[in-house]
C-alpha cells in the first residue's frame, strides 16, 4: 500500500530542480540518468520546449534518434521558429541518416539565428554526408514522390492551391532571366531542364493553365507544383552556401589542412579535426578548441600557423558568446583580427570584424558594432553577406536614433537582397527603411515600404512577421492621418 501511495505522489521536487539536475547529469555524460530527470520535469510541465530539447539531446547521445526526433518535433508544436528545436530536429534527422531533411532544418535555423555557428557546422556536415553517400549531383535520379512540402525553402514556401498565383509565377519567371542561374540549372537538372522549360511554356498558356483535370485539380496548380519541385531540388544540389561565413571558414580550414606540415604527433589530428571541433555544444567546443590552441601554439616552421590560430580563436570566441561571456569572447575575436592583420589575410580579417560587431551589438554597444562592421564593408564579396551586413549596420544606427543613416543602409541592404532575389532579406530591409522613414516623418515612403514588407511576409507565409507588419502599418497610417 505504501508503495502504491508513493507512486501516486509523483515528483517530490520542482520543475527547475529536475531541469538543473538533468543539465548537470548531461554535462557529466550520464545521459540515461539525465533523461530520467528531464522526464520527471516534463511530468510537471509537459509542454516545456527547453526541457524537450534537452531530453532530445540526450537521446541523440545514447543512439535513440527516433525519440530524439519526437521530442524535437514536440518542442516546435507551439512555436515553429523555436531555433533550439529546429537545431535538435536537424541533429536527430542527421543521426537517423536523413541527411537531406536535416540540411533543410539546419538552413531554416540559420535563417532565424545566423550568428549561431551550430547551424553552420550542421549545414557543412549534412552536405558532406550527402556527398559521401550519393556522390555528385549528376549521378542522382530525382524522384517526385512522398511528402515534398518540407523541401520548399522559406522564401518559396506557399500554399499553391490557395495562394495568389500571379505573383508566384511572375517571381519564377524573373529568376530565369539570370544567365548564371540558367547555366547552373541546366548543369544540375540535365535532361530534366528541358522538362522545366516545357512546364514554363504551359504556364504561359492562360487557356490551358485555367483548365482542370478530371479530378477537379487546376492544371495551373499542378504545373506550379512541378516547377517548384524542380527548382527546390536544383537549389539543394547546387549546394550553394547561403551562409557566407560557413563557406569562408570552410575554405580557410581546407587551406590550413593543405599547407600545414606535421611537426609533432598531434599535428595531423588537430588539422584533420579542425572542422569537427564545433559540434553544437558550446562547452565542448570551448574545451576542444582550447586544447587544440595549446597544441598549435607549440608548432614551429608551419606556413599557416597564424591562420590556424586565428580560426581557433574564432571558434573559442563564438563558443563564449553562446555561453554569455562577452568580455572573453571579445578578447579572442580581437586576437583573431590581430593575427589576420599580421598575415595580411582578408577572409580571416572579415570574419573577425564580423564577430566583433556581433558581440558589440549583443551587449548594446551599437557604435562599436558599427565601427567594426563598417571596417568590414570593403571586404564583402557576397550578395547575401552584403544584405545582412548593411541591414545590421542600419539597425544599429536606428538604435542610436540616427535615422538618416539607418535609412541609407536599409536601402543598400534592400538593393543587395533584390539583386540576389532573397525575399527574407528584402522583407527585413523594407521594415528597417519603413521604421527609419517613420521617425523622419516621411509617412508616404514609410507606408510604401511597410506594404512591400507585408507582401514579402505573405509570400514567405511568415504569419508572425505578417501580423507585426500589419500592426506597424496601421500605426503608421494613423500617424500620417494626424
CATH superfamily of the largest domain: Tetratricopeptide repeat domain
Helical/strand content category: mainly alpha
CATH topology of the largest domain: Serine Threonine Protein Phosphatase 5, Tetratricopeptide repeat
Portion of residues in helices? Answer: over 70%
Name the average pLDDT: 76
Provide the descriptors you would attach to this structure in a database record.
482 residues, mainly alpha, Serine Threonine Protein Phosphatase 5, Tetratricopeptide repeat, 3 domains, 25 helices, 73% helix, 0% strand, globular, disordered N terminus
What report would you give on this structure?
With 482 residues, this protein is mainly alpha-helical. The protein folds into three domains: 121 residues, Serine Threonine Protein Phosphatase 5, Tetratricopeptide repeat (Alpha Horseshoe); 80 residues, no CATH class; 238 residues, Alpha Horseshoe (Serine Threonine Protein Phosphatase 5, Tetratricopeptide repeat), CATH 1.25.40.10. It contains 25 helices and no strands. The longest helix has 20 residues. It is globular.
Note the topology:
Elements: H1 2-9, H2 15-27, H3 31-44, H4 49-61, H5 65-75, H6 83-96, H7 99-112, H8 117-134, H9 165-175, H10 179-189, H11 192-204, H12 206-209, H13 219-238, H14 244-259, H15 267-272, H16 282-297, H17 305-322, H18 326-342, H19 346-362, H20 366-376, H21 383-399, H22 403-419, H23 423-440, H24 443-460, H25 463-481
Helix pairs in contact: 2-3, 3-4, 4-5, 4-6, 5-6, 6-7, 6-8, 7-8, 10-13, 11-13, 14-17, 16-17, 17-18, 17-19, 18-19, 19-20, 20-21, 21-22, 21-23, 22-23, 23-24, 24-25
Amino acid at each position: 500500500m505504501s508503495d502504491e501511495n508513493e507512486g501516486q505522489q509523483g515528483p517530490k521536487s520542482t520543475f527547475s530542480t529536475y531541469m538543473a539536475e538533468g543539465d548537470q547529469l548531461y554535462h557529466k555524460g550520464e545521459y540515461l540518468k539525465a533523461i530520467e530527470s528531464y522526464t520527471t520535469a516534463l511530468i510537471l510541465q509537459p509542454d516545456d520546449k527547453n526541457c524537450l530539447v534537452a531530453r532530445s539531446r540526450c537521446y541523440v547521445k545514447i543512439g535513440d534518434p527516433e525519440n530524439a526526433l519526437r521530442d524535437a518535433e514536440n518542442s516546435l508544436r507551439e512555436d515553429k521558429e523555436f531555433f533550439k528545436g529546429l537545431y535538435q530536429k536537424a541533429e536527430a534527422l542527421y543521426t537517423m541518416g536523413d541527411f537531406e531533411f536535416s540540411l533543410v532544418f539546419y538552413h531554416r535555423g540559420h535563417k532565424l539565428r545566423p550568428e549561431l555557428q551550430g547551424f553552420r557546422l550542421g549545414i557543412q556536415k549534412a552536405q558532406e554526408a550527402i556527398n559521401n553517400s550519393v556522390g555528385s549531383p549528376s549521378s542522382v535520379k530525382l524522384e517526385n514522390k512522398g511528402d515534398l512540402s518540407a523541401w520548399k525553402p522559406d522564401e518559396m514556401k506557399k500554399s499553391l492551391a490557395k495562394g495568389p498565383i500571379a505573383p508566384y509565377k511572375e517571381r519564377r519567371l524573373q529568376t530565369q532571366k539570370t544567365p548564371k542561374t540558367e547555366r547552373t540549372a541546366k548543369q544540375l537538372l540535365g535532361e530534366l531542364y528541358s522538362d522545366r522549360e516545357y512546364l514554363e511554356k504551359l504556364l504561359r498558356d492562360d487557356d490551358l493553365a485555367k483548365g482542370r483535370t478530371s479530378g477537379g485539380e487546376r492544371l495551373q496548380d499542378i504545373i506550379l507544383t512541378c516547377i517548384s519541385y524542380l527548382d527546390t531540388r536544383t537549389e539543394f544540389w547546387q549546394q550553394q552556401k547561403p551562409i557566407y561565413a560557413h563557406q569562408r571558414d570552410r575554405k580557410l580550414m581546407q587551406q590550413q589542412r593543405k599547407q600545414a606540415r606535421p611537426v609533432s604527433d598531434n599535428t595531423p589530428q588537430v588539422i584533420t579535426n579542425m572542422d569537427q571541433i564545433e559540434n553544437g555544444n558550446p562547452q565542448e567546443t570551448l574545451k576542444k578548441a582550447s586544447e587544440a590552441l595549446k597544441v598549435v601554439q607549440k608548432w614551429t616552421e608551419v606556413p599557416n600557423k597564424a591562420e590556424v590560430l586565428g580560426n581557433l580563436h574564432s571558434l573559442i570566441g563564438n563558443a563564449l558568446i553562446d555561453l554569455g561571456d562577452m568580455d572573453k569572447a571579445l578578447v579572442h575575436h580581437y586576437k583573431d583580427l590581430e593575427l589576420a592583420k599580421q598575415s595580411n589575410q582578408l577572409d580571416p580579417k572579415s570574419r573577425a570584424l564580423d564577430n566583433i560587431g556581433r558581440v558589440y551589438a549583443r551587449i548594446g554597444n551599437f557604435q562599436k558594432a558599427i565601427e567594426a562592421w563598417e571596417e568590414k564593408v570593403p571586404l564583402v564579396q557576397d550578395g547575401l553577406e552584403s544584405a545582412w551586413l548593411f541591414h545590421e549596420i542600419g539597425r544599429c544606427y536606428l538604435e542610436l536614433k540616427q535615422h538618416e543613416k539607418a535609412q541609407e543602409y536599409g536601402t543598400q541592404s534592400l538593393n543587395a537582397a533584390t539583386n540576389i532575389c532573397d525575399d527574407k532579406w528584402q522583407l527585413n530591409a523594407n521594415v528597417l527603411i519603413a521604421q527609419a522613414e517613420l521617425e523622419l516623418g516621411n509617412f508616404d515612403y514609410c507606408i510604401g515600404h511597410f506594404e512591400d514588407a507585408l507582401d514579402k511576409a505573405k509570400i514567405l507565409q511568415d504569419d508572425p512577421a505578417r501580423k507585426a507588419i500589419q500592426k506597424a502599418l496601421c500605426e503608421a497610417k494613423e500617424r500620417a492621418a494626424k
